[in-house]
Amino acid sequence: MRKWLWILMACFHAATAAAQTNADSLAARLADKSMSASERIRTLNQLAAYYNKDSTNIALVWANEAYLLALREENHDLQAASLLNLSEGYLYNDQYDQALNYAYTALDLVETDSARARCFTFLGWIFYDTENAHFSQQYHQQAYDIYRRLGDPRTIALSLNALGLVYLQKDEFATARKYFDSTLQLARDRGLGGMVATALSNRGICENEFGKYNDAIADFNQALAMLKGGDELSHAEVLNQMSYSRIMLKEYPQARELLAQARTLINQSNSNTRKEKLLDNLTNSVLLYQQLGEYKTAFTELQEYTRVRNEILSKSKSEAISALKLKREADENQTRIITLVAQKELRSFQRNALAAGVVLLIIIGFLVYSKLKQKQKKEKELEEVKRALIKQELEGALMEKEALNNKLEFRDNDLKNYALYISQRNEMIRHFIDELTGLDIHSDAKKENIARFNKMVNKFQHDLDINKDAQDFNLSVNEIHKDFFFNLLQQFPNLTENERRLCAQIRLNLSIKDIASLNNISVKSVEMARYRLRKVFNLEHKDSLSDFLKNF
């Protein structure tokens, strides 16, 4: 485990300012009674961040006080900041269930993208430490996407390095190397010295996996040069990794010296993560002594490795699968002194519990499946009822439309018959007048007959000009075909009253002769009027004027 690498990344942006501030001065500020509640919460969180790395229990006290005060103030942002400090503290103590709970609670409270990305980063490290690379990659990728959108080079570099560590955990070393190279390039361009050292060290680990031990040593030396005066465990981690390179190159004296230097730095540190660096040191020590043939010493180092590892992993409570497995193995080791009968009873109990759990899961699964099927059946029935109602409404609308169309067609036929009647009547009157005017009344007729005939002709001519029936016909057309005239005028508002009337008569399929008789005009006048309408409507020669008007 290489926890210092990711802990440095997770805490870098939260604790940098706090690490620069003296803890005593921060504590002294808390005595100021005039300090606002928000400022007090921020100071408490600074103290928690300051102590989290080396004095986690003290940090948890400060963070818990900050959280309670933030709850009282109902400030979600400060609550989330306090929860993340609590999460970090429990993560250092390997209490992953608590750390995960606080991180998820913080995620539910945050509102800004930067705060959400920070929560994703914490979640990524929690799952990384429990060796769940899938979820760790998912959360670190979400954090990286946000940071890249926000455009902050430092946080982008942190996320790139975190993704590289996840791929390193998955043994996908080529992919991990690409992420570390990207981190290194960005850190150098932006002058992020600490990130440069971290990326170099991580890249060196990849070089070791590729068998490029000299290249790895070059990266480690560069990292050490940049870490002068820094954290002891940071130096120790690089020295541990470099010792592995020396062992693989069979440079055993140099490897022994590097391991000794790393062990000294580890023993000097009070950090909660020192045991993890000790594990790396012991692992390489076992390898070194095996290569040297000093098997007794190698065995002693291996025993120490097992003791330290069990001590670390026993603190994982229930969330990490690997920790649960190791705990079960530890329990089995402790029960070896129990008699065969007791062991048989224990295995029987475990089998029964497992069987009960399986049966319970099957029952729950069946109930859930039945409920889902019932819900789907109800939804299907409801959908069928809706479809039937829609179909019924649609059929009713179609029938209503058909009835309206039939009614309109019937009234159109009435209008047409009425028009034909008027046309025939006018034609008859015209013929009658023509016959009257053709009578010879100048020979033997008396003057009173002449006056009478003239009066008759004038009366028929007057009635024909007034043509009240034609006016009634036009009024009927206007009343029945309101929608037609409205739609027509929407598109052609400049049509005259005579043109609109002619459009309605053409739409009724009246012949040119009937239209001429109906309007008491000549056939040629009707043809000219039709021609003008075609020009107004911009119709081609092949287009039907009657079909065009039926579209309105």
TrEMBL record:
Annotated signal peptide: 1-19
Annotated keywords: Coiled coil, Membrane, Signal, TPR repeat, Transmembrane, Transmembrane helix
Protein's UniProt name: Tetratricopeptide repeat protein
Positions annotated as TPR repeat: 157-190
Regions that span the bilayer: 353-370
Keyword Transmembrane: yes
Residue ranges the record marks as coiled coil: 372-411
